[in-house]
Write a structure and sequence with these properties.
78% of the residues lie in helices and 0% in strands. With 78 residues, the protein is an all-alpha fold. The chain has one domain. The chain is elongated and about 40 Å long.
């Protein structure tokens, strides 16, 4: 769910040029990665589809550094 919310907030940030949407996108992306890590650690046939979908969405977002550059991630969370 957080991967989809991050994707949506990223889109809103692109359209509106509002920094608060970038912050929301970043927060949801972090939660999505934490959830993905937990899902992978308890991988089963029951959560395989969710893990695949979340992996695709998160990796697709990571390719678009123009919207949420790595510098903003390290500035806020490191």
């Amino acid at each position: 769910m957080h991967a989809v919310l991050a994707w949506s907030a990223t889109h809103l940030a692109e359209v509106s040029k509002d920094d608060s949407h970038l912050e929301n996108a970043l927060n949801h992306r972090v939660l999505a990665l934490k959830g993905l890590q937990a899902g992978i650690q308890s991988f089963s046939r029951y959560n395989a589809d969710a893990i695949l979908c979340a992996s695709i969405i998160v990796s697709w977002q990571s390719l678009d550094a123009s919207v949420l550059p790595l510098s903003s991630i390290t500035k806020n969370f490191c």
